[in-house]
Amino acid sequence: MSFTQQKVDKEIEEALVKDFQAGNLDAYDKIVELYQKRIYALSFNLMRNQMDAQDVAQEVLLTLFKKIHTFQGKSAFSSWVYRITLNSSYMKLRSKKKEPKISIDELLPSFNSTGFQQEKIQDWSENTESLLFTNETREIINKAVGLLPEKEKVVFLLRDVEGLSTEKVSEVLDLTIPAVKSRLHRARLFLRKKLSGYFEEYNSQKGET
């Protein structure tokens, strides 16, 4: 998307928000059209449950309807929507029995005393563009993402799955840009090691065909 298109989209969004705050229900319907899929996708990626994600999406849209007057425009409207979605998703998760998560440090690469990485890990991330479209690969990656600790997971989902910029993720999560980059780096290392064995086998089988 070009800078000009982004500017146009932002201006349209701001106009819709102002119209809705003024009581225009048609503007709310258009906001729902813009955000319903994004809200559902983010909540589903966090919870991996369709029913729960649908519940969260409905809750978020209802919250937008009831609390639009509280939005003051200090941050982008989209950032406000993402924050509400994250909060609703986390509340839903807390209401359920959470599965134990493994420590991210257990799967991060180990380094020797001289600072060099002790084991060579294939950088599968360069090959994911084609692999991500297979159902098997999606399932493998989803399971690995599900093992990420929440702090790293949400940054990874917003940055690499939702495609938000580092600056946007920083605004949504109220984190510094270095903190976002650090968590994203740790998430990518975690997933790279977790998934390297699978992609080595995949590439080996692909080479045999």
Outline of the structure:
This protein has 209 residues and is mainly alpha-helical. It is 70% helix and 0% strand. The protein is built from nine helices and no strands.
How would you characterize the overall build of this protein?
There is one protein chain. The chain is mainly alpha-helical. The protein has 2 domains: 3-94, RNA polymerase sigma factor, region 2, helix turn helix motif (Rna Polymerase Sigma Factor, Chain: A); 104-208, Winged helix-like DNA-binding domain superfamily/Winged helix DNA-binding domain (Arc Repressor Mutant, subunit A, Orthogonal Bundle). 70% of the residues lie in helices and 0% in strands. It contains 9 helices and no strands. The protein has helices spanning 3-21, 25-47, 50-67, 77-94, 128-131, 135-146, 150-161, 166-173, 177-208. The two termini are 38 Å apart. Mean pLDDT is 81; it is low at 107-133.
Count up the helices.
Answer: 9
Question: Major beta sheet, specifics?
Answer: none
Number of strands: 0
Name the poorly predicted regions. 107-133
SSE sequence, one letter per element: HHHHHHHHH
User: Which structural class best describes the helix and strand composition?
Assistant: mainly alpha
Percent of residues in β-strands: under 5%
Ends apart, CA distance between termini: 38 Å
CATH level-two architecture of the largest domain: Orthogonal Bundle
CATH topology of the largest domain: Arc Repressor Mutant, subunit A
Helix content: 55-70%
Shape: globular
Radius of gyration from the alpha-carbon trace, in angstroms: 20 Å
The quaternary organization reads as single chain
What's the rounded overall pLDDT mean? 81
CATH class of the largest domain: Mainly Alpha
